[in-house]
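Pasting as-is:
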Amino acid sequence: MQDIQTDDQHSKDTKELIAIATQLETMLDRFEELKIPEYITYLNSHRKLFWINFISGVFRGIGYAFGAVVVFALFLYILQQLAISNVPYIGKYIAQIVSIVENNGAFRH
């Protein structure tokens, strides 16, 4: 009777070990798919990490500047169209802003 319980326990332990081994293999496959070892190597390479972050920061700054120029140009275009259409009240203020800018020499050659 004792031998039967030991064999049952042994087969149960074996099944659990096989299940754990299968899970570990699945996890290792997922790590390889996600390229975790390459990412850890990348994080440990300080010089490479610095340059990639520096270059991405430069391009991010260029993108912000370009976006701001586009938004500002669109804003000025809308203001110009409002000034041309002589919208009451608003057109007068825009004309004052234009005269102030012209008097300060921003558009002089």
